[in-house]
Amino acid sequence: MNHLLRGHAPLTDSNWKLLDEEARERLAGPLAARRLVDFVGPRGWEHSATNLGRTESVPGNEEGISARRRRVLPLVEVRVDFAVSRAEMRDDDRGALDVDLTALDAAAHQIAVAENSAVFNGWAKAGISGVIEASPFKPERLGSKADGYPRAVARAVEALREAGVVGPYGLALGPDEFIKVIETAEHGGYPLLDHLSQILDGGPIVWAPGLRGAIVMSLRGGDFLLESGQDLSIGYDRHDADAVHLYLEESFSFVVATPEAAAPLI
Hints:
Layout: H1 13-28, E1 38-40, E2 49-58, E3 67-74, E4 76-85, H2 86-93, H3 102-121, H4 131-134, H5 149-162, E5 169-173, H6 175-183, H7 192-199, E6 205-207, E7 214-218, E8 224-228, E9 233-239, E10 243-256, E11 262-265
Parallel strand pairs: 1-8, 5-6
Antiparallel strand pairs: 2-3, 4-10, 5-7, 7-11, 8-10, 9-10
Helix pairs in contact: 1-3, 5-7
């Protein structure tokens, strides 16, 4: 038995299989940041902090003693609660193919957005500096129409190259910007998505809920570290006659090692 307490839930093996598979499916799309940064772990629920490799001076406790304290970044624990109907779970045991898991779907999207936002935008109260705020580059303007995106993305890529940051490069697009790209065809019907991919040296273009605007990031590795303690998991909280109350939970930290490896666009 671990801290998720799944063994205490009034759910069958079939129920847990359904819930885990649905969560994996719903998280696969919106977890955009993981596709563009180095993901390390999971290291386990007991893992508490990321080593920053730096120290700070502290007063010695005795005369003639000098001391330095190791600096670390504590992991933040993120949790979203949801509930499933016990009647729906019983129907799953009977072989129902249309079990209502709307609440789980919403929770999965919500926690994915929180992770993306921490990586891209930062989370000051958790000690996390995001990729956008750390970048030294002035944001390129995307403009109101998607046909201007290739020029802006090309300028962002050029800024990285001039800083000595090699590719391939990835492009994260906020939801509004992503819709514009996939709905737009350039002259002659050439898809804008393909044009952008060529500018990125074949790198991925990802839908990133939680991001406003866009950002070009190098995929060479070693520039951005998302360290996972416990990866996204479903845990049990309590139950009543009608519902089982569960939660999605993870612990992570994020460190920008090379600020000049990303260029934002707005």
